[in-house]
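This entry is set out below.
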Amino acid sequence: MFSCHHVFILLFLYRYVRLAVNLVAFCLHRPIPLPDNPRLTSQDVTVVIPSLQGDGGELWETIRSILATEPHEIILVTVEAQEQRARKMAKESNFSKVRICSVSQPNKRRQMARAIPEVRTEITVFADDDVTWPSTLLPWMLAPLEDEQYGGVGTNQRLRRAERPNLQQRIWGYLGALYLERRNFDCASCMFIDGGLPCLSGRTVAYRTSILRDESFTYQFTHEEWLGQYQLNADDDNFITRWLISHGQKISYQHHKQAEVLTTLEDNPKFLKQCLRWSRSNWRSNITSMFCDGHIWTRQPWSAYAVYLTTVSHWAILWDALLLYLYFDMTRSWTPKSQEVGLATLASWIFLSKFLKLLGHYIRHPIDFLLLPVSILFGYFHGLIKGYAMLSLNVTAWGSREGADDDDGYRMIRVSQKHQEALEFRNTVCYTQ
């Protein structure tokens, strides 16, 4: 029979072996280097940007930064209601390499699927409409794809920090920056150990066009079902990552300063809605990966333990409380002095574990050490967000972006209520500037 001592050791090891091994792996990870004589160049790349508004300063800056990398072309996919705005922007900005396509409803999967048949290059890169690329990005993204075994490549991501934030913006921005830092850490660590990662983030990601054009992929991508009751039109990047893994394609993650994409996150209470959306997406995708597809258990066993299982097993406040309870229970016979020393050691380790994987952020921005208590408290609070997400997996609303939820019901359609018009692209138009 297990004693409190045995349970404490098992829980401690289950939780912290992951951190210790990942710390070593993160330090050892190196991106796939640039080849001396690359076969693929920027002219083998088409960049697809799904956009709701089809216009605006942020989108302009995104397009300009992408054009600086000299891709073959950019396909901007917006909605029909914003098509004229997008055409006007392309014309006035003299974006000669930008083509405009539209779909009837604002849905990222449908926008991506609309653009894929238009791509004429070997590599397709999807990018969000609020990212900034370094001019050095494409060679680093293309380096893994020189090997035909690789089907997708992800990028390092950092938050574009506000220039003169007020206190509220600084706090929310800090939490957003840590979210990306934590994600970079997990991706680099798992990639080094077993070639896995949580997800090839759609903020900027490269795929072989031949994979995206596969008829089976296209059908599954536009007809994914959730729980056998809903057609799921959200979580596009999670789906493609699972597809690559299940079809034996290698994936890569280029953790390098020259492959670092800047992005924006909410710097106000809407950040909580983003966290809720991400958490729902993680629940849906990780449950599918672990219990439906099942490929990760044999192909990426460490990632399954270090990333996927945390969806169902990682609840910070419960783990910390349970470890402390077990510690006090198993040390009842110790002297008060010994118990105090042991408690101080345990508490110090728990504290260190809260920021060790985030050390890179604090080295770059030491002033943020002052906000460390905020991140610890938010980590505990996030358990409530995660729990609520678990109870509302049939919800796909963004809640944080204007116009994003105008057709939210389209993202998850009851299978029994699907109509033919919901599965077709109506009156789609492709325009070349």
Notes: Confidence is low (pLDDT under 50) at residues 418-433. Residues 167-194 form the longest helix (28 residues). The radius of gyration is 23 Å.
